Amino acid sequence: MNVIEFNKLTKYYGDVKGCKDVDFNVKQGEIFGFIGPNGAGKSTTIRSMLSLIYPTSGSVTIFGKDAIEFGSEVRKEIGYLPSEVFYYDKMKVIDLLEYSASFYDRDCTDRIKELAEIMELNLNRRIQDLSYGNKKKVGIVQGLLHSPKLLVLDEPTSGLDPLMQQKFFKLIAEENKKGATVLFSSHILSEVQQLCDRVAIIKDGEIVSVEDVKALQHDNYKKFTVRGTGLNNGRFNIDGVTQLVERDDKVKFFYKGDINKIIEIVSKLVLTDLVVEEPTLEEIFMHYYE
Fold it and tell me: How many angstroms from the chain centroid is the CA of residue 168?
């Protein structure tokens, strides 16, 4: 069963394309990644999906119901964390969360306390006194306090320190084990690889691929920087190597293929440094999809 079904969803702002012909499904119980560079159309797609803005054409169904026609109904079972959070500055955190909880037909008191403890959030502070990271924590608690069936997370880790990011990932994984479906939007590939089963990749407002994460990891390029002496003799000019740049003491390239072939080459060299990195999403778009 699909929890979300996009059907050629398109949104234009006048002549400016926000997203076009977005077409993918999110299955019940999966953590689905939605990735692309900043400005690629992720937030526009999500806001159109939630009928916070209206699409130019196309449609989305959530829980089998049209997202616009039944928007008020389906949103009761959705927890949404926008990429940017804005609140009434003079409210206390607890007052804001209790106000949010009042929209749902359930007692969220214990859940608020539980989530605030996990996220190390002080419920008695005023919004205006919070850092950007702590405001993001408020948004996380607000999105989860009613134990929704669907979590829609748009760039959820921005502003969180690395330790808190890991707590957040663990929290989302636990919610998923309880049965929640998750749509996780990010421009950070490592986050998506850590959490997600499948990913849709968006570029310039259009879906360029829907991939299984394991396949994406296996087929992905690696970025190599090799330092030493006598490197510029073409020894790295082999199948799978692209964007090769050679100097006397430094070689840089991208490689896709059996990594043991590169290890075999470098094992015969006297090196001063070797760096193997994950490419950025922009680099993946440049090298993986051309």
Answer: 13
Domain boundaries, the chain: 2-217, 220-288
> What's the rounded Cα separation, in Å, for the pair 230 and 197?
43
Which pLDDT belongs to residue 15? 94
Give the position of tokens 């699909």.
2
pLDDT recorded at residue 192:
82
Distance CA 210, CA 233 (A): 39
**Is pLDDT of 242 > 90?**
no
Which CATH number describes the domain made up of 220-288? 3.30.70.250
Q: Could you read off the pLDDT of 87-106 as tens digits, one per residue?
A: 988 999 999 999 999 999 88
- Whole-prediction pTM: 0.80
Burial class (CB in 10 A: 0-12, 13-18, 19+), 131: exposed
Instruction: State the pairing for strand pair 16-22/78-81.
Output: unpaired
What is the third-level CATH fold of 2-217?
Answer: Rossmann fold (3.40.50)
φ, ψ for residue 122, nearest 5 deg = -80, 115
| Residues 92 and 124 sit within 8 Å (Cβ to Cβ) | yes
- Report the percent of the chain where pLDDT is more than 90: 66
Cβ pair 143, 96 in contact under 8 A:
no
Relative to beta strand 65-66, strand 78-81 is: unpaired
Is 290's pLDDT higher than 60?
A: no
Is pLDDT above 60 for 287?
no
